[in-house]
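Researcher: First entry.
Model:
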Amino acid sequence: MVIILLLSLCIATKNYEVYGSMPNLYKSEDLALDEHLKALNKAPIKTIHTEYGRIVDCIDINKQLAFDHPQLRNHKIQLKSSIQDTKPEAMKRDKSTRYSNFGLNEKDSCPNGTIPIQRTTKEDLIRANNFGTLAQFDRGSHFAGLVMKHRIFFGIVGTINVYNPPVGDDQMSSAYIWLSSGVINSSMPNYVVIHAGWQVYPGMSGDNLTHFFISWENSIQHTGCTNMLCPGFVQTSQSIFIGAPVKNVSIYGGAQYSMSLNLTQDPNTKNWWLKAQDMDVGYFPAALFSNKLNFAMRVGWTGHTKVFVGGTSPQMGSGHIPDRNPRHSSYISKLYYKDRFRDDHIPLKDSVRVYADNPNCYNANYYGYVDNILQHAMMFGGPGGNCGL
């Protein structure tokens, strides 16, 4: 297995480009891809053909890819988080908000003791080479969002407005919550970081749909990936699967749909649990982060675009600069961060920093309390264009 993982790292450094067709590969490269696929795709108990043309396999929860990670070989799976929701009843998920659907339909359920995993293809592996790590403030990336000023955090919560911005094959547009520890923007990076949200990125998914995604990186050990392309994230959900297409998205001036996300450290196991739409999806085990993520030093809510080969940048969110109107501007609402007791706190305006690296293309604004539905919200987005690199 160690040899297979080393082969996969070698493949990841190759400069392949594929969006709709397979490139010509050397026989050794093709064989290495096949070996990597065998490691990633576990024997299914049930196979589901989704409406989007992708295959989802129901895998024994105890035989999932995460446990191929050297530091998780003897890991005892945590089936349910022990985190208590501390928000007052009035602040919990309300019936007036439309929530996006992603994951399996009720008729396509996985058997008890199994979890749904989207089957990885050879094209997926080659496309994944083009995906820049979200933690890197690298060439072609633009950001607009909100970050908490320095302190110690044990979780972050946000409900992200979901759009499907038009994106070319060499572009990406996303929105997510994140937390990190260490130094990211440095000549000698020493950090760990987790992201969760939605993205439109044909170079990763092979289509122009909006997808639920996660990513993580441990720069100390040079490990991490997007979605389930490497061992790490432990999935527990029987319905939501990582990389799932989002079935309903917002329309400018019309119906708005949202994705509720919660990323919090379990006080007992120190694992970082991810909830989506108020359901446990799974967790990032503490062992992944070399004891460098016992708490987060930074948390934030972000819109992000990227162009890979020059040219214009895509639109972010709805494609409109924030104007306080939630039917116009993309937003992340119900903002909370968690203290060491895992209690929820609303970000105060003097405790956050609003940032946008190119206000002519994208911007962000923190409005504080907006109304009973959005509660405390940040709005972000913009049309993109010639934003510079």
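Researcher: Second entry.
Model:
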Amino acid sequence: MYKRLSIVMFPLVTLALIGASVWGYLEHQDKNKILIKAENQYQRAFHDLSYRMDRLHNELGNTLAVNSTSNDSYRKGLVNVWRLTSQAQSDISQLPLAMLPFNKTEEFLANLANLSYRTSVRDLNKSPLSQEELKTLGTLYEHSKELTGEIRGVQNKVITNNLRWMDVELALASKDEPVDNVIIDGFTTVDKKVEGYSEIEWGPGNLTVFQKNNVQMLSGNEMTTEEIKQKAAAFLNRSDVANFQVTENGNGGTEYQSYSVTASSGGKNEADIQMDYSKKGGQLIYFVKSREVSGANLDIRRARDAADEFLDQHGYKEMSAVSYDQDDSTANIVFVKRDKDILIYPQQVSVKVALDDGEILGVQAAEYVFSQKERKLAAPKISAEEGRKMLSPQMEISEQKLAVITNDLEQEVLCHEYTGKMNSNLYRIYINGETGNEEKIETIRPQDTQAAAK
């Protein structure tokens, strides 16, 4: 009996072992293909980065070599600098450097991109490069030479020693073992060098993408945890704060020092309300309430009215709805501050409304909080009729307003806002009230104008 059983089972077991071996081999091959593909992508991004930095250094030198009166050549050179810097930033983002302190180099490139872009789009005939700006470009040329040399040194070691970026990823992921890797050491050296470039005068108008919301922007005293509890209770219209949990965030190193509040909505042990408050001034930054929404019973106008009433009750006075977005059961409506008849777009609040009963499920108010300031808004030099002449004659204008927006140079400008239709599309076009230049064009959807309609 056992002999018969073994005669039957032996081929089956053999086939199973062969099948498992083949499957394991194929899995190993697939894994190797994925690893090789990832390694090739890392290598390409790294060598592209080295090439861009070399080109960037040369382009800065070419820009400085032209005659000081050759504004077109300056503009062309600065556009090329901006393009190469942006590409270098993209190359860095494709490398496994997330756990490596490389933020100073990224900030340097971001500042350089901003400086070159802002300068290239400026009217250099009216506002030519100053001696200080030329000096800054000269300093950047020298620093880019140094950085290019460092990255080339890393590149030579990678090529000579056949180093792999996958080893970098593994080394950074290993928390228990000391990191010893040529590539990591090279990039760490680059970042330390950039940290020493403190003498660069980027100019007062150069706003880096790494600029953080600073606590000094806010007014008021620093709040205690108990004061934040009371503010959260007042916002939620509650008297009992027993189940409120408050956590302090940051110690000066975050975007803004804040408190996070977690509370129950009153259901069965559901801690489903989260709120963030600034430590200074105790201003609401963020609020969200998680619950299932059963259907959509409200239309756009009723949802907007519910959000408008909510904002008014909580101290957000003089707000106007400007855009609307809806999923199956909730609506997100953006409101901006209104100063008399002028819309202040930098100061905005986003409100999430449940479409079953109009309950407010979320508020995002960071832009509103950190854009608060006194604005002296003079009458525009360009009239609405003159601004309209800058638009296409084929555009059917349905509405005109005054609005403060942030332009591509990160400057607040007073504009005429025109809403109009052309080629079956709706547009908002912003014409600078001081110069008559076109500042921005936005394509909008029909529901956006419905939400904003009063």
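Model: Note on the second entry: Confidence is low (pLDDT under 50) at residues 204-213, 449-454.
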